[in-house]
Amino acid sequence: MEPISDALVYIVDDDAGVREALAWLLRSRRLLSESFDSAEAFDAMRQARSAPNQPCCLLLDVRMPGLSGLALFDLLLARGDLAAMPVIFLTGHADVPTAVDAVKRGAFDFYEKPFSDNALVDRIEQALAQSAAHLEQLRQRSSLQLRLQDLTERERDVMDLVVAGLPNKLIADQLDISVRTVEVHRSRVFDKMQVKSAVELANLLRTGP
């Protein structure tokens, strides 16, 4: 799998040796990383920054002094951050049942220490791909919402009837306007929505906000 452009892997582990080894491993696969020695430090960073706007994932140790990895995961889950930032837990043997439960609640995966470097990085790349797909979906929804907001009320009326499959004559009768006026509004709708046909418009709206 090709590295995803601008992707970032967050590493949260209280063991400096683990952080450094993971950062080196990621560099060897051309992946950028940012490390934190505590869940508190990572949480402070996340709250200080806006929502993720680049593909990212989080490598999270389960057991740490202070705020545990599981407690941080619960915070991210409550904030709805997991789709944009999948979480992969790094666990000791005793933490496997906890990690399995977290996966059931939305974590992307877990790896028991010591883990296979290649298997872990392959899974990280899959998590980053999921993050990228989610962010692209959000961008598309935002773009569609802006296009919809640019429509006039009459254009919106015409669009709804076009999508419903009505021909221009029936749209004109239903809205009590001329067929020529319908044609003008229909053309403007297609231009503003950046589509070339009623089918394309219907498909766009079906995946919309």
From TrEMBL:
This is DNA-binding response regulator. Signal peptide: none annotated. One of its GO terms (biological process) is regulation of DNA-templated transcription. One of its GO terms (molecular function) is DNA binding. Keywords: DNA-binding, Transcription, Transcription regulation. Gene3D superfamilies: 3.40.50.2300, Winged helix-like DNA-binding domain superfamily/Winged helix DNA-binding domain.
